[in-house]
Q: What sequence folds into this?
C-alpha cells in the first residue's frame, strides 16, 4: 500500500460473505430485530462468557439503557473517567444524574483509582470504568471499591471486544458490559452495540426497556415502562455474525502489526509506546502514542496528513470541553493526566488492509516529524 493512496486511520474488513448475509436478510423480508439478532446475541454471549447479551443500536445506547435499567437518575452521581469519548458521560446526563469526572493513569489511560475513591459521595450510585483503546481497566480494585460502597459497575467496553482481565473477558466483570460495533472498532455492523450481563432481573429490565417498554403476548403489546427503541436490525446482525467469524484472525493481525510498531518506536526520544500491564492483553482498537510536551502533536497530525497518512488525537479530556465546564464548573487542565493525554496522544493507522510494508511507511514518515 502506498501513502499516495491516502492511508486511512481505520477501515472495516469486509468481503463477499457480508454481502451474501445481507442479501439473505433482504430476501427474507424480515429486516428489524429478528432471528439474526438472536443469533448474534448468542454468539457474543458465548464469546464473552455471560448469561445474557442484548443487541442495541450503539454502545452509547447500551450505556444509557444500562443506567436506566439500574435505576440511576436525578440526584445520583456516576464516576466516569475524564479521558474518554463524551458519550460515556453524556448518557449519565441524559438520565438526569451527574457525571463525576475522574482523572486517569497515564500508563494505561484508564481510571485513576485514588482519584475515584476520593470522589465517592453519598450520592454516588455507579462507577463506569472505560477499557480505553482496547486495554482493560484495573478491575479488581474497582470492583472492591464498588462493593465497599454498594455501587453498580458499568463497563464501557466499547473498544474492548477480545480484551481480558486476568483471563476473564471484559464485559463479564461488572453489572453490565457495553460494546460498540462502530466502523473504527475491530469488527463493525456500521453502527450497533451490545449489552452483556449475568443478572437475570437486570436482563429482564433491559429486554423491556429496549423495545418501548412493552411485552408482546397473543399478537399485541402491553406496555409496562416508558421505554426506548434501541433495537438492532437483522441487517446489522447478519453483518455482525460474519464479522465475529473473522474476529480471531482480525485480532491476531492487529496484535502482530502493533508489536512491529512498538518495536520500531519504543527507543525514540519523546515517544511513549502503549503500556501492557500484567493483568491482560491489549487488543489495540487504537494504537496510541504519548508524545513529549516538546513535540507539537497537532503539527505532527498536519504533516502526516500532507503525506496522505491519517492520524488523530487519542480521545478527549471531558473537563476541557465547554459543556462540562459550563454545567459542572470544571476548569481547563484541572485533571492533569487527562489533560496531558488529550493534548499529547497520537493515534496511528491500524487495520486489516495494512501489512509490514505499510507500517514501515508510517514509521518512516513519523520519525521525520518528531
A:
Amino acid at each position: 500500500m502506498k501513502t499516495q493512496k491516502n492511508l486511512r486511520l481505520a477501515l472495516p474488513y469486509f468481503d463477499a460473505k457480508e454481502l451474501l448475509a445481507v442479501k439473505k436478510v433482504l430476501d427474507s423480508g424480515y429486516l428489524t430485530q429478528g432471528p439474526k439478532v438472536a443469533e448474534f446475541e448468542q454468539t457474543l454471549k458465548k464469546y464473552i462468557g455471560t448469561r445474557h447479551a442484548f443487541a442495541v443500536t450503539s454502545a452509547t445506547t447500551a450505556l444509557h439503557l444500562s443506567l436506566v435499567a439500574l435505576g440511576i437518575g436525578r440526584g445520583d452521581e456516576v464516576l466516569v473517567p475524564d479521558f474518554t469519548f463524551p458519550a460515556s458521560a453524556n448518557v449519565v446526563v441524559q438520565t438526569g444524574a451527574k457525571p463525576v469526572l475522574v482523572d486517569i493513569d497515564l500508563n494505561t489511560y484508564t481510571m485513576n483509582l485514588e482519584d475515584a475513591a476520593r470522589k465517592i459521595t453519598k450520592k454516588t450510585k455507579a462507577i463506569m470504568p472505560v477499557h480505553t483503546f482496547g486495554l482493560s481497566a484495573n478491575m479488581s480494585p474497582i470492583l472492591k471499591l464498588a462493593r465497599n460502597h454498594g455501587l453498580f459497575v458499568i463497563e464501557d467496553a466499547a473498544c474492548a471486544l477480545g480484551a481480558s482481565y486476568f483471563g476473564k473477558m471484559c464485559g463479564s466483570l461488572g453489572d453490565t458490559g457495553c460494546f460498540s460495533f462502530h466502523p473504527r472498532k475491530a469488527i463493525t455492523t456500521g453502527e450497533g452495540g451490545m449489552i452483556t450481563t449475568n443478572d437475570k432481573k437486570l436482563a429482564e429490565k433491559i429486554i423491556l426497556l429496549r423495545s418501548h417498554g412493552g411485552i408482546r403476548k397473543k399478537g399485541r403489546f402491553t406496555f409496562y415502562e416508558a421505554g426506548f427503541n434501541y433495537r438492532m436490525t437483522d441487517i446489522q446482525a447478519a453483518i455482525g455474525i460474519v464479522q465475529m467469524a473473522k474476529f480471531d484472525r482480525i485480532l491476531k493481525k492487529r496484535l502482530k502489526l502493533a508489536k512491529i510498531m512498538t518495536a520500531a518506536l519504543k527507543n525514540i526520544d519523546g515517544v511513549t509506546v502503549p503500556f501492557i500491564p500484567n493483568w491482560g492483553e491489549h487488543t489495540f482498537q487504537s494504537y496510541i502514542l504519548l508524545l513529549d510536551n516538546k513535540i507539537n502533536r497537532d503539527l505532527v497530525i498536519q504533516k502526516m496528513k500532507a503525506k496522505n497518512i491519517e492520524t488523530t488525537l487519542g480521545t478527549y479530556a471531558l473537563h476541557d470541553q465547554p459543556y462540562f465546564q459550563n454545567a459542572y464548573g470544571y476548569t481547563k487542565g484541572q485533571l492533569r493526566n487527562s489533560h496531558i493525554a488529550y493534548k499529547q496522544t497520537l493515534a496511528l493507522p491500524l487495520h486489516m488492509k495494512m501489512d509490514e510494508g505499510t507500517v514501515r511507511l508510517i514509521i518512516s514518515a513519523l520519525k521525520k516529524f518528531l
